[in-house]
Design a protein that fits this description.
There is one protein chain. With 364 residues, the protein is of the alpha+beta class. The protein contains six helices and 18 strands. It has a single domain, classed as Porin (Beta Barrel), CATH 2.40.160.10. 15% of the residues lie in helices and 52% in strands. Strands 1-3-4-5-6-7-8-9-10-11-12-13-14-15-16-18 form a 16-stranded antiparallel barrel.
Length: 364
């Protein structure tokens, strides 16, 4: 905790000492909830994980992963702006930051031009994750089917872990591979964002391998902003961190669309999560449909259904979430949602899983 407090104090001191013409911000989102949950668990997983039991818990991030951030920018000339962003996740149930990196969400420095676009270096959220979370009503929440099924999808991840173990991967290699696959940000990253061309823009990202024998990462994203209509596509390939004994890469793509009909905003996504192995591949197809329906000036009903399916392995995951989000002010809201999930692995069907969550979120 001393290191965390010292690091935060140093950042505050640096921002305070910045030139008067530079902009500095301290901001964040804090989200915590009370949940009662019992996940779906096929019999095939019981020997390793035990019987699925109902758990009452205080959990972080029911709608948004909590984080604090520091940002500063300075106008260099009429076209160029330099910026720095440091963002650290915070689990409000325990007070812990990310177990792997303190500045786990973003730690980057960049230069932006209205004419030529922006370049950033450091640790950055992936352009794939940003696109994935833009086209479902639950955004980056783990309660939403997009993040739960595609940001380290349940079916593909479970199949991958089994295959890696059979191929002789050590526990350390298995844990490292799992972290690499579910990570929402890449270290040693270079990102280029194009200028906006009448609502059309693109982003390109590279994660340098820096000595990793399996290789580096790369991704691209394309976004269309046409007022009520929004659309996007993203692709990423992950090699860094995967065990050399088994996998060559984890490749994902997702395409999404949303339309604001005033009375509701509709969302749809399709995608694929694929592991390229030396002896074949593991592939899961993904879809998601959702809606956000305003019921008052301050409240909205949210609903999302998603599925990942792997036909060769006879495996699939189904997830349905619906709930209500109410804003007490511009920065504070309370929410409640019910999540139903069903996991099937290798033809072994689990029972219906349920999770009821009630929480509060504050932005500053």
């Amino acid at each position: 905790m001393f290191k965390i407090a010292t690091g935060a104090a140093l950042v505050v001191a640096v921002l305070a000492a910045a030139p008067a013409h530079a902009d500095q911000n301290f901001y964040g989102v804090l989200d915590v909830n009370l949940s009662v949950s019992k996940p779906s668990r096929p019999d095939i997983l019981v020997p390793a994980l035990g019987e699925s039991k109902r758990v009452v818990a205080v959990d972080p991030g029911g709608m948004t992963t909590s984080y604090i951030g520091f940002a500063a920018s300075e106008k260099i000339n009429g076209d160029l702006t330099a910026s720095v962003v440091l963002e650290a996740q915070a689990a409000l149930d325990t007070g812990f930051a990310s177990p792997s990196n303190f500045w786990s969400r973003n730690a980057k420095v960049g230069v932006a031009s209205a004419t030529y676009g922006a370049v950033t270096l450091g640790r950055a959220q992936t352009v794939f994750f940003n696109t994935l979370t833009a086209f479902n009503p639950y955004g980056e929440s783990d309660a939403g089917s997009s993040v739960a099924l595609m940001a380290g999808g349940r079916v593909t991840l479970a199949s991958m872990q089994t295959q890696f173990a059979l191929d002789g991967a050590t526990t350390e290699e298995l844990n490292r591979a799992t972290s690499a696959i579910i990570d929402r940000a890449w270290s040693n990253s270079l990102v280029y964002d194009t200028p906006d061309f009448d609502g059309l823009s693109a982003s390109f990202q590279i994660g340098l391998k820096e000595g990793d024998s399996n290789g580096g990462n790369h991704a691209l994203a394309i976004r269309l902003n046409a007022e009520e209509l929004q659309a996007g596509f993203a692709y990423q390939s992950v090699k860094t961190g995967l065990p050399a004994v088994s996998a060559t890469s984890n490749n994902r793509w997702v395409a999404g669309i949303s339309y604001d009909f005033s009375v509701l905003t509709a969302y749809a996504q399709v995608g694929q999560d694929k592991f390229e192995l030396y002896n074949g591949s593991i592939r899961s197809n993904f879809l998601q449909f959702g809606a956000k329906v305003p019921v008052s000036a301050k409240g909205a009903v949210l609903a999302s259904f998603g599925r990942t399916k792997n036909k060769p392995l006879e495996s699939q995951a189904l997830l349905l979430t619906f709930g209500y989000d109410h804003f007490f002010s511009q920065r504070t809201d309370a929410y409640a949602h019910l999540l139903l999930d069903k996991l099937e692995l290798a033809g072994d069907k689990g029972d219906l899983g349920t999770s009821l969550t009630m929480g509060v979120r504050h932005r500053f």
